[in-house]
Write a structure and sequence with these properties.
The structure holds two protein chains of two kinds.
Chain A: H1 12-21, E1 31-33, E2 44-48, E3 53-60, E4 69-71, H2 74-85, E5 91-97, H3 100-109, E6 115-118, E7 129-131, E8 134-138, E9 145-152, E10 161-162, H4 164-180, H5 190-193, H6 198-220, E11 224-231, H7 240-262
Chain B: H1 2-27, E1 35-42, E2 47-48
Antiparallel strand pairs in B: 1-2
Classes of the chains: A alpha/beta, B alpha+beta.
């Protein structure tokens, strides 16, 4: 996880406590503890999939109000961290708690980044933008959305290609064929069921051809990616163990909110 | 105070997203083994990811 400025609001001890509890690495290339003068987190993390090595770099623009922390230059620190990762990994992801201006500077200055995953933004871009060959992912804030970023056929030569249109078309086509299949009897095909309906047969043939074409595009293209933004609403089923923790925690939040109202806070 | 409470909720959000990510990845092996999925999210202006 990349450390953002709000993660530091409760001071160094709190974030270190959280780091010790977490079963995943906290990273940031440019946060220094003012008191010790030492960098607080590793700049990078490497995660391996079954056939890829993925490098992650963290950075924040910081906040002057956070007196217990010093924030080093984001561009220089990311440049150094990316140079350290290059050659060790197949793809480099920059987790960037930065503003739009800094994002552009980073994308224009540091070539070897493949994806910039932004926070410090309320934008949700379902169709990611590319700048200088680097894909920027923006999926809002405060856990309102998660996003599934699917990446295929990685090579070190080509730029990333957005295949969101093909994925959406596959989903649409599958749903149409599924809807038409509702009344099928056992052993019956769509073609035999609609044998006397020429227009429907033509539509089925078109949908099947469309499905083959889009699946082929997705399986053959190098360095393709697809982003699916997932709103974390009530339709997402709770994990029972986590639901218990949240249920235990909520009365404390309600109590705190009631206290704020009494004190006239907003 | 409000920020502090949000901060305390952060690990909970992260755990939920992590679990969601693993589950989603396990279900989506449809087109090719050369595909992998990263789950990403901005919790309280930090990020969580990847999974699988």
């Amino acid at each position: 996880m990349n450390i953002g400025i709000f993660d530091l609001a409760a001071g160094p001890e709190f974030i270190v406590d959280m780091q010790n509890l977490a079963e995943f690495p906290f990273i940031s290339s440019n946060i220094v503890d003012t008191e010790t003068g030492k960098q607080m987190f590793p700049s990078t993390a490497i995660v391996e999939t079954h056939d890829q090595k993925l490098g992650f770099v963290g950075v924040t623009v910081g906040d002057k109000r956070l007196k217990k922390f010093e924030f080093l230059d984001p561009v220089e620190t990311v440049k150094a961290a990316v140079a350290e990762l290059k050659g060790q990994v197949d793809l480099i992801f920059l987790l960037a708690n930065v503003d739009d201006k800094t994002e552009i500077i980073l994308a224009e200055t540091i070539e070897d980044i493949d994806f910039i995953i932004r926070s410090k933004t309320s934008s949700v871009q379902r169709n990611p933008k590319q700048h200088n060959g680097i894909v920027t992912i923006k999926i809002g804030k405060q856990g309102k959305y998660a996003a599934a970023l699917k990446i295929r056929n990685v090579d070190s030569v080509n730029n990333m290609v957005n295949v969101s249109a093909q994925y959406k078309r596959i989903k649409f086509t599958e749903n149409r064929l599924k809807a038409m299949s509702r009344d099928l009897k056992e052993g019956e095909t769509l073609e035999s069921h609609y044998a006397t309906d020429q227009k429907r047969l033509e539509l089925i043939a078109k949908l099947r051809a469309d499905l083959i074409k889009n699946r082929e595009t997705i399986t053959t293209l190098k360095n393709s990616f697809y982003l699916e933004a997932i709103p974390l609403n009530d339709k997402i089923e709770d994990t029972p163990e986590v639901a218990v923790i949240v249920a235990d925690y909520m009365p404390k939040v309600k109590k705190a909110k009631a206290g704020d109202k009494v004190a006239g806070k907003h | 105070m409000k920020i502090l409470f949000k901060m305390k909720a952060l690990p909970i959000i992260m755990v939920m997203l992590g679990v969601l990510g693993c589950k989603s990845n396990a279900l989506e092996q449809k087109y090719n083994p050369n595909e992998f999925t990263l789950m990403v999210a901005a919790s309280n202006h930090g990020e969580v990811g990847p999974c699988g």
